[in-house]
What does this fold into?
Amino acid sequence: LPQAHNQSDGLININTASAASLETLPGIGPARAVTIIEYRNLNGPFKTLEALMNVTGIGSETFENLRPFITH
It folds into this structure.
């Protein structure tokens, strides 16, 4: 099975990660993981990491906590 975070640096790709992978991120629980995937399905891939803040419930503080762990 393809790994959602198959980057050599271990980052989680917010455009391909499964809900289970997203839930490993700080501050992301099951509901928010689903919200991220729904946003991605409706709007297409995130073009920047900062675009993650367009997802309901992810503000600048949450984003700053996520930034070291994500890629796109």
